[in-house]
Amino acid sequence: MNSHTVFLGAGSNRGDRLDYLQRACTLLEALPDTAVTATSPVYLSEPVGVTDQNMFYNAVIRLRTALKPQELLSHTQAIETALGRAEKRQRWGPRVIDLDILLYDQLHIEIDGLTIPHPEMHNRKFVLLPLVDLANPRHPVLQQNAEALLKTCPDSSSIEQTSHSLQ
């Protein structure tokens, strides 16, 4: 089995946010040829875009998987649907779960519906802080590691680490 290292961003701001993140983690662990190898602490962060909504719980999940990027995307979207995420939704609006592929090894992919690395990750503290808790991977396009990206991140929103973890 060819195994790949993947970092996923996970967020929730509706219902029992921690439970949705934990359930997503459990469903990711059940994917074929996939293992959750680490999870970051959970962070509480302000919403981006549409600000009149609940605060988010955010975390980063590291996987080892043999799934190809498009297969993994299909599975993460199925997990979002299984947990109750509406198919039609407001961009940046409230959601029970959001799973984004941040990094997949050092691949740079731009195909219909999938861009890796995630095109906004370097602009989001709620992605970079939990990512740095797990590792300091290099961004394959910007050619900087996550710690350097965090130092220059333009995001000035409020974010704080909670006492919660996912595993």
From TrEMBL:
Keywords for this protein: ATP-binding, Folate biosynthesis, Kinase, Nucleotide-binding, Transferase
One Pfam family hit: HPPK
Domain 7,8-dihydro-6-hydroxymethylpterin-pyrophosphokinase: 91-102
GO terms assigned for molecular function: 2-amino-4-hydroxy-6-hydroxymethyldihydropteridine diphosphokinase activity; ATP binding; kinase activity
Pathway assigned to this chain's UniProt record: Cofactor biosynthesis; tetrahydrofolate biosynthesis; 2-amino-4-hydroxy-6-hydroxymethyl-7,8-dihydropteridine diphosphate from 7,8-dihydroneopterin triphosphate: step 4/4
InterPro entries: Hppk, Hppk_sf
EC numbers on record: 2.7.6.3
UniProt record, GO biological process: folic acid biosynthetic process; tetrahydrofolate biosynthetic process
Keyword Cell membrane on entry: no
Keyword Nucleotide-binding applies: yes
Family: Belongs to the HPPK family.
Function: Catalyzes the transfer of pyrophosphate from adenosine triphosphate (ATP) to 6-hydroxymethyl-7,8-dihydropterin, an enzymatic step in folate biosynthesis pathway.
Protein name as annotated: 2-amino-4-hydroxy-6-hydroxymethyldihydropteridine pyrophosphokinase
Provenance organism: Prosthecochloris aestuarii (strain DSM 271 / SK 413)
